[in-house]
Specification:
Order of helices and strands: EEHHHHEEHHHHHHH
Strand content: under 5%
CATH topology: ABC transporter involved in vitamin B12 uptake, BtuC
Helix content: 55-70%
Number of helices: 11
Number of strands: 4
Radius of gyration: 20 Å
Distance between the termini: 51 Å
Length: 294
């Protein structure tokens, strides 16, 4: 059997695949953050709360209304997207002309309120969420058994990331969204409703976070505390370049793999390796790997 630095090759390949699964979640979550920051210049500290809400709403749909996983993939992000639109219209729009720091503080406060409300209503205990029968079982890859659900996470995450990139960069709606945020006065003069474009942008960003929450529900205990575990996503966005959509996606996938390899060769460093990389990137390239220097 081939060993690499004392680690059997099958174990190494298995850990690489598991790292790719984590990287898919990082890519999906950082995509929403990058869209909101890149187009609205808002550091959305409530992003983790939206991720948690996606998972919680999926569980509530199943527990209270017997609505299963597949409908929840669409319903939960839609609910959270509408909720995000309400936040943008009622709160963020009022501070749009102020320093971006106010947006950061406001979304941080929103995250605390949402987290506190869900803990009060549902407690902090984790709730199980079953894998849909169609995705139960595993693929035999020879060197490991890959659960079908984890393969689905990789495929669906990459599909959503690609679709979001195409929508924003290659479609007429995406051109309107970019124009409305880059030069709102000129865009408004051309007859495009800028407030609607801004509202849609924020709704899409938080809806993607909720979609990631639904994907995560069968792989972890659904709990209001889920939002505390994604601080690493902010590091991913910084490393990829604030506002760079393709940078956030590629960096998320790469760092998931790096984190997985670190668990094999240096387990005690796996919890901090992403932040060490972030420090190094900021020292060498402050704009991030894919960001544009001013």
């Amino acid at each position: 059997m081939i060993d690499i630095f004392g680690v059997p090759l099958p174990a190494l390949l298995g850990q690489l695949l598991l790292g790719l699964v984590n990287g898919s979640f990082y890519a999906l979550l950082s995509l929403g953050l990058a869209i909101i920051f890149g187009m609205l210049h808002i550091i959305n500290f409530a992003h983790g709360a939206m991720y948690m809400m996606g998972a919680m709403f999926a569980w509530l749909l199943l527990d209270r209304l017997a609505i299963g996983y597949w409908p929840a993939l669409f319903i939960a992000p839609l609910i959270v997207g509408v909720f995000g639109i309400g936040i943008e219209r009622l709160l963020l729009r009022r501070i749009a002309r102020l320093d971006p720091l106010y947006g950061l503080l406001l979304t941080f406060g929103v995250a605390l309120v949402i987290g506190g409300l869900f803990r009060t209503l549902f407690g902090v205990g984790g709730q199980p969420y079953s894998i849909p029968p169609e995705l139960s079982g595993a693929f035999d890859l020879g060197f490991m058994m890959l659960p079908k659900y984890r393969a689905w996470v990789i495929v669906s995450s990459l599909t959503v990331c690609l679709a979001a990139w195409y929508l924003i960069e290659k479609t007429r709606l995406g051109a309107f969204l970019r124009a409305a945020t880059e030069n709102p006065a000129l865009t408004q003069a051309l007859g495009i409703n800028v407030p609607i474009m801004v509202m849609l942008t924020f709704g899409i960003g938080v809806g993607i976070a909720a979609f990631a929450g639904v994907l995560a529900a069968p792989t972890a205990q659904v709990s209001p505390l889920m939002s505390q575990n994604i601080i690493v996503v902010f590091a991913v966005v910084v490393i990829g370049g604030m506002g760079s959509i393709i940078g956030s996606v590629l960096t998320g996938l790469l760092l998931g793999v790096v984190e997985g390899l670190t668990k094999v060769f240096l387990p005690e460093a796996s919890a901090v390796v992403v932040f060490v990389i972030m420090v190094g990137v900021l020292l060498l390239r402050p704009a991030g790997l894919f960001g544009r220097s001013k």
